Amino acid sequence: MIRLEQLAKSYDEGRTFAVHNIDLEIPAEELLVLVGQSGCGKTTTLKMINRLVEPSSGRIIVDGEDVIGKDCVELRRSIGYVFQGIGLFPHLTVGENVGIVPTLLKWDRSAVSARIDELLRLMSLPPQQFRHRMPAELSGGQQQRVGVARALAGRPKIVLMDEPFGAVDPVTRDTLQTEFKALQKSLQLTVIMVTHDMAEALVMADRLAVMHQGHLLQVGTPQRLMASPTHPHVAALLDTPKRQAARLESLIRATPR
Q1: Which end of the chain is more exposed for a tag (fewer CB within 10 A), N or C?
Q2: Under DSSP, is residue 51 helix (H, G, I), strand (E, B) or coil?
Q3: Residue 161, SS3?
Q4: Domain map of the chain by residue range?
């Protein structure tokens, strides 16, 4: 569904690279998580796929087409995008936020309305209760659900997610992770997600792609990477959730029953 070929990004005419010659294939219906420390190039890589950031070199093939030959606006409307920090339009109602892409795609008004109601129900936000609310009237978890609904409104095959659950509390975050993973499978979506939270990455990913200083170090299932890291940085990154799990297990064993 998505293929990156020698993809690179430099902001200083080639003196340094934020992303350096990445080759990566993402099959249809996979949830791939890009992980790595802050500044490793994962968000830049994500944004190059829908050309929010223009690549310096290389190719991006989406569903068989080179995105460089496509109109940017058309490309972005065909790919769902869930923003870091939710990113709803504060002056629009929940319904207007969800319906903005179908409206821009010139869907019939009744089709837009039906799609809004369908997605709000899917997100456990009854339309009669939430459709006319403003974003400021919602909890963080409800706002994030609206953000996901908006990303799905145009029936995209591909969804890009940049730290999608970072702005909500841990309990809500856990619920949203579980709900979205089930939704991704049921809708057969191809998803690329960026997160710095390794526990979230391991729980959500079909495969992980580990980046460091603009380079792609290793790609594989969570089980394979945890069992056989091929680079010291990959091993260090995956040791963090292992240590946390060990400390939690120790606390659980020490808790009086």
Answers
A1: C
A2: coil
A3: strand
A4: 2-254
First to last CA, the chain: 50
Q: What is the rounded distance in angstroms from the CA atom of residue 59 to the CA atom of residue 2?
A: 11
18: closest CA among 58, 45, 36, 37?
A: 45
| Helix 140-152 and helix 94-104, axial crossing angle in degrees, nearest 10 | 20
**Cα-based distances in Å from 85 to 106, 143, 150, 161, 168:** 28, 10, 14, 11, 9
The CATH code belonging to domain 2-254 is: 3.40.50.300
Percent of the chain whose pLDDT exceeds 70: 99
> What type of residue sits at position 8?
A
pLDDT tens digits, 28-40: 999 999 999 889 9
